[in-house]
Amino acid sequence: RPAQFSLQPPPPMLILAAPARLLEAATAIARAWLEAHRETSAAVGVPAEVLEVLQGALPALLTEHFVRVAFEDDHRKLMISGADKLVGGMLEAVHALVRKHALEEASVALSAEETALVQIHLRALRSVREGVTVELLRNEKTVLMRGTAEPLAVVKGELDALLGEAEGCAVQLTLSAAQMERLHRPQGREREVLVRKLQEVHEVALLVERSSMLLSMRGREAAVAAAQKAMELVLDVDDHERVVPMAAIPVIIGRAGANIKRLKLESGASFDLDRASGRLRVQGTKAGVAKGCELLDELLDQNAGHLELRVHGRQVPLIIGRGGATIRQLQADSGASIAVSKEEHLVRMRGSKAQVELAMQLVQQLIAPPPSSAPPPSERNHRAATAPPPGLGAPPPGLLP
After folding, report:
1. What is the tens place of the pLDDT at every residue in 352-394?
2. What is the C-alpha to C-alpha distance for residues 374 and 225, in angstroms, rounded to an integer?
3. 8 Å CB contact between 208 and 194
4. Which of 35, 152, 359, 382 could bridge 147 with an S-S bond, Cβ 3.0-4.6 Å?
């Protein structure tokens, strides 16, 4: 015979009658059924944004799970009562509904570079999934996201992917003073700072550390590569400064500015010379500044020689010549630059060492006195020895020709 069950109150008791060979198995089945249908209760927290959705879903859930429910604590908690097995099913269904509709928060701590990058991509992150808010707390260097579980996870995954890719292709450049100035100098009619414009165009974060002269680049791999190419053009600038001797200033400028104009024209760089301090600044592209410095060094080498000669005032017109003809000829013959100060009676010669030495020789030859017409001492002695005594046709002493 099959096993038979009977319930006899009070107190409630389940009576089991079965053949001996079935009794053990029947007892196990009975105990399992009793455990599954044991009376129990459970509580579920109900966020305010989920209450309306839950109230709408309760009728169908109660029909499916055969349990009793009641709201407590001003509808912030749902109590579920009934058979343990049924309560467990209802509890799982309510938890799933709460997870789907409850708002969650997630925060991500950022570095300074990541904060700048998220600022650029903030609009894109906010549009990833509807219903998720993304807020950047710049001072705290934190991203705060709020939304329901599934879309929130998608947005957080997008943020993690952005930060991970940016970390893998981060670039750091050492800047010169000219490059630093170029990046922060306002450009165009809008006077927009170049570094900000590059960030917007390429969607990369550019952080400049002035104390260490470092530029950090963060962004998507393709965006960083494009920004680097743009930087090669933008940062093709250089700046060279030196203090030149005061005597070299006229050489650099040249007559009517001819030398400094030639330096600018041939190099493409700008030359800014402060005559009072001798400070010279060369600016332009890297190639232009290098060429300008090379031409400048050549010019100074060619005019490294400098000699001065003080003359008598009456010799100044002789050196200059009519209409400057003589001094022009001296310059042409020597290759040196020759200037005469009429007030100081001073001749200044500049050029290469060989040029100024030749110019000095030519000027000295020009102003040297003509050779004397008196006979050499040997000739005078010979004539004195052969002259007749005084009174015999010889001139008086002291009147020798």
Report:
1. 888 888 999 999 999 998 776 555 555 555 454 455 555 444 4
2. 91
3. no
4. 152
pLDDT at 190: 47
246 has pLDDT over 60: yes
pLDDT in the model for residue 64: 92
User: Coil, strand, or helix at residue 203?
Assistant: coil
Which residue range is the domain that position 120 belongs to? 103-168
Which tokens go with 102?
A: 């409850």
Domain co-membership, 213 together with 250: no
How much is the mean pLDDT over the chain? 86
Mapped onto helix, strand or coil, the DSSP state of residue 50 is helix
Structure-block tokens of residue 153: 């996870």
Across the strands, what pairs with 225? none
- pTM over the 0.70 mark: no
The one-character DSSP state at 226 is: H
Q: Helix or strand or coil: residue 178?
A: helix
CA dihedral sign of residues 333, 339, 343, 344:
negative
The CA distance from 95 to 78, in Å, is: 11
CA angle at residue 259 from 258 to 265, to 5 degrees?
A: 90
* Alpha-carbon distances, residue 337 vs 266, 305, 317, 366, 387 (angstroms): 22, 10, 17, 17, 56
| Whole-number Å distance between alpha carbons of 216 and 207 | 5
Q: pLDDT digits over 204-235, tens only?
A: 999 888 889 999 999 999 999 999 999 888 88
In a domain, 8, yes or no: yes
Q: Which of 282, 302, 322 is the last residue of a domain?
A: 302
* HEC assignment per residue over 229-284: HHHHHHCCCEEEEEECCHHHHHHHHCHHHHHHHHHHHHHCCEEEECCCCCEEEEEE
The residue ranking higher by pLDDT, 123 or 23, is 123
Where residue 45 sits, what CATH number does that domain have? 3.30.1370.10
What pLDDT, on a 0 to 100 scale, did the predictor assign at position 78? Answer: 95
- Residues 72 and 97 grouped into a single domain: yes
For residue range 48-59, list pLDDT tens digits in order.
Answer: 999 999 999 999
| Maximal CA-CA distance, the chain | 197
Structural domains of the chain, count: 5
309 found inside a domain = yes
